[in-house]
Amino acid sequence: MSARMLKLLVVALFGWLVAGSVGILVLAFCYVVLRPLALEEADKHGISTDSASRMGGSVVVLFMGITVLPELLFSASVLNSALVIIFVVVIALYSLGVAEDMGAQLPASLRLFCILLVVGSAFYALNLDKTLSAVWPGIMPLQGVYFAALILVVLAGFFINSFNTADGANGLVAGTTIIFLSATLEQFGLQASLAPLWLSAALGAGLFFIVNVVVGRFFLGDGGAYALGGVVVLSLWFALQSQPNAVLPLLCLVLYPITDLSFSAARRLLAGRSPMAADNRHLHNLLYHYWQRSLNSGVANSVTGLTIVALFSGSGYLLRAAPAEILVLLVLLQALGYSALWFLLDTQSRKLIAQPAAKAGQPA
Q1: What is the 3-state secondary structure (H, E, C) of the chain?
Q2: Is the dihedral of CA 254, 255, 257, 258 positive or negative?
Q3: Would you say 282 and 264 are in contact if contact means Cβ atoms under 8 Å apart?
Q4: How far apart are CA 175 and CA 98, in angstroms?
Q5: What angle do CA 320, 322, 323 make, to 5 degrees?
Q6: For the segment 111-152, what is each residue's pLDDT rounded down to a tens digit?
Q7: Measured between alpha carbons, how far is 92 from 167 in angstroms, rounded to an integer?
Q8: More confident site: 29 or 198
Q9: Domain range summary for the chain, segments of one domain joined by +
Q10: Contact, 213 vs 302, CB < 8 A?
Q11: Is the pTM of the predicted complex or chain greater than 0.85?
Q12: Which of 39, 73, 136, 253 to pair with 319, CA 20 to 30 A apart?
């Protein structure tokens, strides 16, 4: 039996364990039908040396469609709930991203505008403006509510984009999302109005996680990253509405994408470049090159993603019940840890690049 066939059998087994026959059907459809639609050469997606497909996010969204749509169509109790709004937002964000995955080449400014338009519409559909007024009754004037709403929408757009930039190492974004959704279900329970969506997204992300880590020939693409980023952002907004004290513990589970994009934007600005310019100097890129010295490309890619998930989301999950002061300290420590590890790995990387050049310049 070939190694490729063995990997596919492992994926099918774990897919069945995670989501039963529906999981296997979704994986098979995406692998056979969707995967060839957005193949990308290895040198275009940064971290790995293997060619891969940008349609991995379809595993998540297709599974969510199959499992959430019946709830929307046949359960009258959810027709006026946030579940409908958030599901529509996820599909809209996925559609925007998958258009780019399929080669639409939309300007970055247009994509950002569309993301802000979608999440801004969701903000008012979810009545979050009223939530802000209720949080600071008699303190925040109407203009302040509008300003706070603008800040929240812009931050949501930034956060969704951060999921896209972190989509490089196998298992990174999916693992982060699974831990976040598991903690969210633990916090709010299976009776919450959004529980069907959280459970579906967690299982869908689990299916993608399996094929991403084991096979390594799928990554989320813009569509999957936008969709999962949207699920996380709108879940945080739900927490803000129903249990504001839960926002900080949940936020601590998804700090890596935020820290990574913030650090990268600052680094580019200091170098005189556009903060939105793409490069391969993210922490997960540098950590991958470190692991690649002793592991093959596919294994190094997966080890990179799992290491970051364990360090960032794992620490947040272990401390999810800690006091707010400890969680604020965790945020600071993760930012400092990210910076220290980045500078260490970047220095090593530059030294390794400089050594062949120095040898080439020596006289024979």
Answers
A1: CCHHHHHHHHHHHHHHHHHHHHHHHHHHHHHHHHHHHHEECHHHCCCCCCCEEHHHHHHHHHHHHHHHHHHHHHCHHHCCCHHHHHHHHHHHHHHHHHHHHCCCCCCHHHHHHHHHHHHHHHHHHCCHHHHHHHHCCCCCCHHHHHHHHHHHHHHHHHHHHHHHHCCCCCCHHHHHHHHHHHHHHHHHCCCCCCHHHHHHHHHHHHHHHHHHHHCCCECCHHHHHHHHHHHHHHHHHHHHHHCHHHHHHHHCCCHHHHHHHHHHHHHHHHCCCCCCCCCCCCHHHHHHHHHHCCCCHHHHHHHHHHHHHHHHHHHHHHCCCCCHHHHHHHHHHHHHHHHHHHHHHHHHHHHHHHHHHHHHHCCC
A2: positive
A3: yes
A4: 21
A5: 130
A6: 999 999 999 999 888 887 676 666 555 545 556 667 778 888
A7: 19
A8: 198
A9: 11-252
A10: yes
A11: yes
A12: 136
Q: Residue holding tokens 């709930």? A: 81
Whether 196 and 71 have beta carbons less than 8 Å apart is answered as: yes
Q: Which of 118, 152, 122, 121 is nearest to 135 (CA)?
A: 152
**Distance, CA of 205 to CA of 208 (rounded, Å):** 5
CB 52 within 8 Å of CB 217: yes
Extract the tokens encoding 19. Answer: 């989501």
Q: Cα separation of 223 and 208, whole Å?
A: 13
One-letter amino acid of 288? Y
List, in sequence order, every residue forming a beta bridge with 40; answer none if it has no partner. 52
Q: How many CA within 13 A on the CB side of residue 40?
A: 25
Structure tokens, 204? 């869908």
List, for residues 155-175, the tens digit of each pLDDT value: 999 999 999 988 878 899 999
